[in-house]
Amino acid sequence: MIVAPPPGIQGFAARFIVGVALLGPWLLLAVLDRALRRTR
Amino acid sequence: MYAGHAAIAALLKGKRPRVPIALLVPIAFAPDWIDSFSHVVHRANSNLSHSLPSVAIGATLCGLLYWLWSRNAGDALVVSLAYASHWPADLITGVKPTWPGGPMVGFGLYSRPGWDLLVESVLVVLCWLVYRRSLPTESRRRSIGWLMPLGLIGMQVVFEALQRPTFP
Questions:
Q1: What is the pLDDT of residues B111-141, one digit of tens each?
Q2: What does the DSSP assignment read for B122-159?
Q3: Looking at this predicted complex, what is its ipTM?
Q4: Structural domain spans, chain A
Q5: Looking at the complex, does the CB of residue A22 fall below 8 Å from at least one CB of chain B?
Q6: CA spacing 20 to 30 A to B73: which of B51, B59, B62, B82?
């Protein structure tokens, strides 16, 4: 897995961490690129 | 590799601004999405997501689908490259499968978190500099532009901390 959750974290919490790890860069770049390409 | 995949997507966006970054980022992470899904359905197998044949098939399929939609071979090639970049990028930081039954290869930089953070941060900054050149001149001066490299490096720090609670 891209992120191995900390020891002791399993199930939904582990999947949540992996989901955030995958979605974080996607959202960051998509939002910033949209904002930066919009000329005032 | 973690933040580096997003950085490579930004670099490709800088080279081919017509291709949406909202598409390039998940494609650059596609083997990790497949790997995560395979864990969810209890069919974990790194050959399915990270071996050379699976990356070659995924890159070809994504490029072909994008070409069918856009009819632009250059843009489709960039989409393929986003997918294909995953394997060589992971080669630096991890140990990845080659083909089913083949050797596992990689420099395993994850075992040296400080060096991993340094390498990925340098990659993020270099890719951001290329990406930045594709922005309108007035946008290049906007302070929110710095959120891209700082945000990715920040995520990398959290990533390192999750992998090793003792980090730094």
A1: 888 999 999 999 999 999 999 999 999 999 8
A2: HHHHHHHHHHHTTS-HHHHT-GGGGHHHHHHHHHHHHH
A3: 0.90
A4: 6-40
A5: yes
A6: B51
